[in-house]
């Protein structure tokens, strides 16, 4: 008889839970739900900037003094202890500097995955366990369920529209064993979560969501990269190597980009051109037609598994962006490299991004895209 997975937060032992509270509505409601479930909850706000005044512009960014105060007020209403932990140096080293290094190398990173891997479920979790806590709770929309044999599994949120399991695909067995996601097991809309916050008396109920990259408060990623990596003039070339324009730094481009190319003259067929390749060694950006973007296969390095590593080739679905859809693939792990082949070509795939594999709603694991193979072309 097959065992049916059940939510890991189903009634069970009372846990000592450290709730990561960003100062937003999701993490506040998650902490309140954990406390309401009978757990012994302590709230903590992570100070991730040495100058926290600068990390928010309107609804962008996070980690300001205002956010810390909002988190403290929410903890007071919930009735739980609250602390602020300074992880700014760790965040700068593991997330911000990694982000810059990846762009410098011509890759397109996802800093939210790196933050989950290195900060929330490494630095924070390690400190929590050392202090005697059993689990870390966050406001992510994903589900941890107990599967056959008692193994904890990461699944998509019950509400697929808000699912954030992609950015959690870097969590391993040990981290999942100490993770709670109280929002992921219900189909509540964001408005219903806000209404719940209002019923609980939480002042953050109508606070705007933060978005984009938290440490780029104005949302100008290219400007941020230019300030930190500097300008370096290079060529924009077509697929035949002919120069069609120039740029001030290859780090300002991503694979699949169409806008902002500033190409001096149109393509012979008059159709738009897209970024096909970025070479940091020669500081060259290659552009071409949309049909040249179709990727048929990729390799991924530094794989991380939310359970046992897959044995032999298998059929899965893959997600390539935080807000992207799924696509059917065949994947196989060989010599610690993940080989993925798509049933049909997909666009917008860039080295540095994460590929996350799913078996139904279960997250199998993830890897960092190292190379891609295009239809009718070689590996890039």
From TrEMBL:
<keyword id="KW-0808">Transferase</keyword>
<feature type="domain" description="tRNA-specific 2-thiouridylase MnmA-like central">
    <location>
        <begin position="223"/>
        <end position="288"/>
    </location>
</feature>
<feature type="binding site">
    <location>
        <begin position="20"/>
        <end position="27"/>
    </location>
    <ligand>
        <name>ATP</name>
    </ligand>
</feature>
<comment type="function">
    <text>Catalyzes the 2-thiolation of uridine at the wobble position (U34) of tRNA, leading to the formation of s(2)U34.</text>
</comment>
<keyword id="KW-1015">Disulfide bond</keyword>
<dbReference type="GO" id="GO:0103016">
    <property type="term" value="F:tRNA-uridine 2-sulfurtransferase activity"/>
</dbReference>
<keyword id="KW-0694">RNA-binding</keyword>
<dbReference type="InterPro" id="IPR046884">
    <property type="entry name" value="MnmA-like_central"/>
</dbReference>
<feature type="site" description="Interaction with tRNA">
    <location>
        <position position="353"/>
    </location>
</feature>
<keyword id="KW-0067">ATP-binding</keyword>
<dbReference type="Pfam" id="PF20259">
    <property type="entry name" value="tRNA_Me_trans_M"/>
</dbReference>
<dbReference type="InterPro" id="IPR004506">
    <property type="entry name" value="MnmA-like"/>
</dbReference>
<comment type="similarity">
    <text>Belongs to the MnmA/TRMU family.</text>
</comment>
<feature type="binding site">
    <location>
        <position position="139"/>
    </location>
    <ligand>
        <name>ATP</name>
    </ligand>
</feature>
<keyword id="KW-0819">tRNA processing</keyword>
<keyword id="KW-0820">tRNA-binding</keyword>
<dbReference type="Pfam" id="PF20258">
    <property type="entry name" value="tRNA_Me_trans_C"/>
</dbReference>
<feature type="domain" description="tRNA-specific 2-thiouridylase MnmA-like C-terminal">
    <location>
        <begin position="296"/>
        <end position="369"/>
    </location>
</feature>
<dbReference type="InterPro" id="IPR046885">
    <property type="entry name" value="MnmA-like_C"/>
</dbReference>
<dbReference type="Pfam" id="PF03054">
    <property type="entry name" value="tRNA_Me_trans"/>
</dbReference>
<feature type="region of interest" description="Interaction with tRNA">
    <location>
        <begin position="162"/>
        <end position="164"/>
    </location>
</feature>
<feature type="binding site">
    <location>
        <position position="46"/>
    </location>
    <ligand>
        <name>ATP</name>
    </ligand>
</feature>
<feature type="active site" description="Nucleophile">
    <location>
        <position position="115"/>
    </location>
</feature>
<dbReference type="InterPro" id="IPR023382">
    <property type="entry name" value="MnmA-like_central_sf"/>
</dbReference>
<dbReference type="InterPro" id="IPR014729">
    <property type="entry name" value="Rossmann-like_a/b/a_fold"/>
</dbReference>
<feature type="active site" description="Cysteine persulfide intermediate">
    <location>
        <position position="214"/>
    </location>
</feature>
<protein>
    <recommendedName>
        <fullName>tRNA-specific 2-thiouridylase MnmA</fullName>
        <ecNumber>2.8.1.13</ecNumber>
    </recommendedName>
</protein>
<keyword id="KW-0963">Cytoplasm</keyword>
<keyword id="KW-0547">Nucleotide-binding</keyword>
<feature type="site" description="Interaction with tRNA">
    <location>
        <position position="140"/>
    </location>
</feature>
């Amino acid at each position: 008889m097959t065992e049916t997975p059940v939510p890991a937060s189903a009634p069970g032992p009372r846990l000592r839970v450290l709730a990561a509270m960003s100062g937003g509505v999701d993490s506040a409601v998650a902490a309140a739900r954990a406390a309401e479930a009978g757990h012994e909850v302590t709230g903590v706000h992570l100070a991730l900037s040495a100058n926290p005044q600068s990390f928010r512009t309107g609804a962008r960014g996070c980690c300001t003094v205002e956010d810390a105060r909002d988190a403290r007020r929410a903890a007071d209403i919930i009735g739980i202890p609250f602390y602020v932990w300074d992880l700014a140096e760790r965040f700068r080293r593991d997330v911000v500097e990694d982000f810059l290094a990846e762009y410098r190398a011509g890759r397109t990173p996802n800093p939210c995955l790196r933050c989950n891997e290195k900060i929330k479920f490494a630095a924070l979790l390690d400190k929590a366990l050392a202090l005697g806590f059993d689990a870390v709770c966050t406001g992510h929309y994903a589900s941890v369920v107990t599967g056959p044999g008692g193994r904890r599994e990461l699944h998509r949120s019950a509400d697929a529209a808000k699912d954030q399991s992609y950015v959690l695909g870097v969590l391993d067995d040990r981290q999942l064993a100490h993770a709670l996601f109280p929002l992921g097991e219900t189909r509540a809309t964001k408005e219903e979560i806000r209404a719940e916050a209002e019923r609980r008396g939480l002042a953050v109920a109508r606070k705007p969501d933060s978005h984009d990259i938290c440490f780029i408060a104005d949302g100008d990623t290219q400007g941020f990269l230019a300030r930190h990596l500097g300008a370096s003039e290079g060529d924009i070339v077509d697929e035949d190597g002919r120069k069609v324009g120039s740029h001030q730094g290859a780090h300002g481009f991503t694979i699949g980009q169409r806008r902002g190319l500033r190409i001096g003259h149109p393509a012979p067929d008059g159709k738009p051109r897209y970024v096909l390749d970025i070479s940091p060694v020669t500081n060259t950006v290659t552009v071409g037609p949309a049909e040249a973007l179709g990727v048929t296969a990729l390799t991924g390095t530094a794989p991380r598994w939310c359970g046992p590593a897959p044995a032999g080739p298998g059929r899965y679905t893959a997600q390539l962006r935080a807000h992207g859809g799924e696509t059917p693939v065949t994947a196989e792990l060989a010599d610690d490299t993940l080989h993925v082949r798509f049933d049909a070509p997909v666009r917008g795939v860039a080295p540095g991004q994460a590929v996350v594999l799913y078996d139904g709603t279960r997250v199998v694991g993830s890897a960092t895209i190292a190379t891609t193979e295009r239809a009718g072309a070689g590996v890039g």
